[in-house]
Amino acid sequence: MGWLLALAVLAVAIPASAWLTQDHLIFLPRMAGPAAAVPRAAVALEIATADGPRIRGWLLPPRSSRAPGAPAPTVLYFGGNAEDVSWALADPRWPEDWAVAAFNYRGYGASEGRPGERALVSDALAIHEALSRRDDVDRTRVVVFGRSLGSGVAVSLAAQRPLAGVVLVSPYDSLVAMGRHHYPWLPVSTLLRHRFESSALAGRIGAPLHAVVADSDSVVPVERSRALYDAWAGPKSWQVVEGTDHNTLSGPDAYWAGIGAFLERLTSPVPASRARGPGS
């Protein structure tokens, strides 16, 4: 009977431990990187969230000299679960005609508070609203860019706000499906608090999508990315970067070439019916 008791204890203890530690498995806050990682041209931004904590990030103006001072098409970047976004901003291969905005999640970098699905989605809405009010941002040309964990934030934003386009890198259909893949012995659907059910939202998003995946992703299986892609309602393109894994995907120039080509396709004039969002 002793082994039965031990099994019973394990059956309770393992799910209980997963419940208590899940935030530490999903969110891996990184402190602010060195100041040198942020391009000199980047403008520091700070936004007060609905419940108090202040989130901080940057807006990197376009590097091109085309129409200086005019409202710029803007990429709004949401990073991975262990990322300080200053490093993403530092990559010199962003398309030069686009501004790039990036904010660290709550608890990441210099942002205050604790991360969680509801908080991150709420903050994304606040960031989008703040950017849309800026004179140097073209609110009809905002593209949301989500990498890994950030793809769930990006999809949630795209389901609630009009966007010119969406770029998703190593995206997943839901964290429940991801949890089942990595922890098949756990009742993930019952335990998981942060679910990011992106595929359930994808069917009502009409914005163009460009999905980028590694050919050998050890973190987000390609079938999880493909499930979200297949559910997407709007026009879409699929890019596989050969010879890469989850953390090396953005290294090759082919990665940036595909993203740049997608953004270039979005620079054609936007019909007035699309340019006006709800409440405008």
What does this protein structure show overall?
The protein is an alpha/beta fold and 280 residues long. It has a single domain, classed as Alpha/Beta hydrolase fold, catalytic domain (Rossmann fold). The chain is built from ten helices and eight strands. It has helices at residues 2-26, 86-89, 117-132, 149-158, 175-182, 188-191, 198-202, 222-231, 253-265, 272-275; strands at residues 43-48, 54-60, 72-78, 99-103, 137-147, 165-169, 209-214, 236-241. The protein has an eight-stranded mixed beta sheet, sandwiched between helices. Helix 3 crosses helix 4 (149-158). The chain is globular. The termini are far apart.
Give the overall form: globular
Intertermini distance: 69 Å
From the 3D structure, determine the CATH topology.
Rossmann fold
Number of domains: 1
Strands in their spatial order, largest beta sheet: 1-2-4-3-5-6-7-8
> Which percent bin holds the helix content?
25-40%
Largest sheet: 8 strands, mixed
* CATH architectural arrangement: 3-Layer(aba) Sandwich
The CATH class designation is Alpha Beta
**Any idea what the radius of gyration is?**
20 Å
Derived from helix and strand composition plus strand pairing, the structural class reads alpha/beta
Total count of strands: 8
Question: What count of helical segments does DSSP give?
Answer: 10
What percent strand? 15-25%
Mean pLDDT across the residues is: 86
Fourth-tier CATH superfamily name: Alpha/Beta hydrolase fold, catalytic domain
**Order of H and E elements:** HEEEHEHEHEHHHEHEHH
